[in-house]
């Protein structure tokens, strides 16, 4: 009976039920995995020691990425036989490379060079074997199609940029997880509407894993951080979603996102990209130091300095990013260069508002 059911079952006939099932499975697996990770981390003293840059004062496990990885891989393994196995297997292979690199970095120390090489290898697996790449600039600054090798190298650059930009925002409770949750939710809807069931399955699996992670990341007594393992895995998946969405849109001239996909991608990743550009500018041109030298000049650190709590900071940043995404979807009729220019303007204004509000409140209280 089970054999007959499997032979006649087609996920594409019931995609919504399929995706809900993948989400529930990912959530349950992750939720049941994190308590074990917490127990082992505490028993083996695998804890993050607070230092001068830390936003927390207690020793905290940084192995949340293990639960996220395990949940996603189990879901993809179970559903892989019924979907695009080539894409799913390559995604799992890339995630496995990043998992072991991140785990080594969380447990000991991994050189930036080795992490960079691992990220390049993981990205190349998807770019070369699935030919999923950014094929052009969609007339940004009048540049359209890119030569093949330029397209490959530019797509690699985008992978590395997004992975590391995402890693840099993992600074306050819930921020990295919540931003990834928002972006994954938008991509899951876009992939579902376009019929890209394999991509939608990966995105809803990530949503399930992140929701379970956030339950513990926001906890006071059972707190866990995603660590480099989690940030590299999640950052890689966000980069994969972004490039897949842009690639699919650019190849489909009938898509309503044919020209607008780069602007929508910028909107969804606005906070990580904006914060990375801002922090690199401050370190290079103002502080005159290496752009890779960690400090507390990120936007989320500014929120804490102005008196916002971790939860308020996370909610404010996620809400602003959500508003920017809504604005982007309402500008599809505009020229792409105009869309991107307006996004930068709206984004700058929206991210300045919380600081302006705090200043006004302090003045009124005085």
Automatic annotation (TrEMBL):
CDD domains: GT_WecA_like (cd06853). The chain crosses the membrane at residues 16-41, 62-81, 87-104, 116-136, 148-168, 175-192, 198-218, 230-251, 263-286, 307-332, 338-357. Its main location: membrane. It is a multi-pass membrane protein. Pfam families: Glycos_transf_4 (PF00953). It is found in: Cell membrane. Keywords: Cell membrane, Membrane, Transferase, Transmembrane, Transmembrane helix. GO terms for molecular function: transferase activity. This is Undecaprenyl/decaprenyl-phosphate alpha-N-acetylglucosaminyl 1-phosphate transferase. It comes from Winogradskyella echinorum.
